Amino acid sequence: MVLTVPSFKPDISLVGDDLYCVLSETDTLGFVHKVGNVFVALSGDNLGHAVEAGQSLSWDQAVEMVLRY
Question: How many other C-beta atoms can be found within 10 angstroms of the C-beta atom of residue 39?
């Protein structure tokens, strides 16, 4: 099985200190939280119920994890 990232570029919005929201045109896809030098990818439209999709040292990879999850 091969996972592909959607061809669109998501919008990114700063929500709080070191917390970013990943948005499509109509939905919240997830969040990226910077913790130290690690980016934690969280999938889901509600931060309180978001599921960790992975961690990365790369911002771009963390956003991709949100898009793939």
Answer: 23
HEC profile for 32-47?
A: EEEECCEEEEEECCCH
Rounded to the nearest 5 degrees, what angle is found at the Cα of 59, between the Cα atoms of 49 and 17? Answer: 60
Cβ(13)–Cβ(21) under 8 Å? yes
38-43 and 28-35: which strand pairing?
Answer: antiparallel
pLDDT tens-digit readout, 7-62: 678 999 999 999 999 999 999 999 999 999 999 999 999 999 999 999 999 999 99
Q: Is 56 left (phi over 0), alpha (psi -120 to 50) or beta?
A: beta
